[in-house]
């Protein structure tokens, strides 16, 4: 049960962060949260160790998030060790940031109040049923997470305290009116430029590549010309959901109902309220307090008022001690026995002892045991019977097709016939490009086994999920290998031509740029070289008709004075350009800045300042990051 909560705070940032915390529980479960710690921490921040357990928890949460984001493609993404290494490093960096924030919060004396923690618990939708906080739901969820109420409370308090630091830095940032106008003026500034592009394609005809150069390039870059391992797969797939069964009759459904009538009995439910006195610190004092409260109730005191003022279960206490409806085998046995021993609405129990402390229980309502009528459940019963028949047929077919696939191991036709499914095949594909359901880890493991690769036999039955199985065999296999030189020589030649053409373009651009610096106009240079002089009278930072490299450089160039400012730019496609900045036009910013633009500028500034703040914390901290991190996959 809940114990009395101490101090705290609340706010939208805290609620967002806590929502993410609860979501992370839902996504990744809590199984790895409370595992054994390892001797080797993943990082150490000012003497505080970040355990392997904390890292594994955060890493699994991140994996779960990515799996939801990318769906079936995540298996392919996760096959890239470099990508997963970046994910692991990102998780470590985030844990280090959080520890730095926690330490700063402690140094500043920041603390979250009991009221804020309590209110957050009441408002989190994860603990609600019908948009209303449910105490049973709350206790059930946190126990599934292996949390006791006090431990869960402190877990939330820690995250909420850390969020105060985030709010203080990012949430309180602002931009002065002059800063906003200056930023808006820069964003909306336009520039007038002339430019010419020296195109590498125009110079390609002058490039020659020898066979020796191709051969040398191949020898130095052989790893770039590897063909991946390829396989062609045949398979048969069996799903219970796809099996057709004979229609279930009304008599079948009625007979099933009569045979299983006990399953459709709704057990007696009781709605109770309680007052809890925590005995974890001083049992004698707690028992004395409970007896005193019981005496007040016998003298006519209001139960709800006493629960609100005196119960250590502060969540139910806010609702007069109400625990809503309970059934047997849900609560503490001693609590249940006392609650179900009460006979009439309004009856109050004696003081009851449980593992949580001392209780006084009040019966507020009774829902007698009920039997669901046949008409209310017959649709569900029919679906159950049909599903049961499908499952029976599935396992029968799975057994038969598995036996035939083993006996006749050089083909799948016989097994497919007995299972009444068709044999499907794929063309030659890389292992990381296999479609559903072949991209399952269990299937990929089978496809890389010696038996299937070398002996070309059928696999065993591979279970992919509930009543979902597959048998595979490899039709054709091509091992990964370096492509021969004659197969890639044209590709290499094209690369070399491209590289040499690009270098010629840059060399020519440098030569022409020198002429412009010597006093020749860009227009004259363009005419002499038969190049096109292009003009942009109002170039903006968001211009898409001009190469991004030219736009970026144009807005880096100094303002022109008496003559244009000229610079050389290498383009991303290998071309080169000469840019002449003729003039700069500052934007006229309106007196009333658009609220959306103001928010965008303020947020950008806040984000920049926050990252500077984090880097400053790192710079002043003693960080120890081990070279390698082991993860629980």
Automatic annotation (TrEMBL):
Keywords: Cell inner membrane, Cell membrane, Chaperone, Coiled coil, Isomerase, Membrane, Rotamase, Transmembrane, Transmembrane helix. SUPFAM superfamilies: FKBP-like, Triger factor/SurA peptide-binding domain-like. It comes from the Bacteria. The chain crosses the membrane at residues 12-34. Residues 371-398 form a coiled coil. It is a single-pass type II membrane protein. It is found in: Cell inner membrane. Residues 267-365 form the PpiC domain. InterPro entries: PPIase_dom_sf (IPR046357), PPIase_PpiC (IPR000297), PpiD_chaperone (IPR052029), Trigger_fact/SurA_dom_sf (IPR027304). Pfam families: Rotamase_3, SurA_N_3. Its main location: membrane. Belongs to the PpiD chaperone family. This is Periplasmic chaperone PpiD. It comes from Pseudoalteromonas distincta.
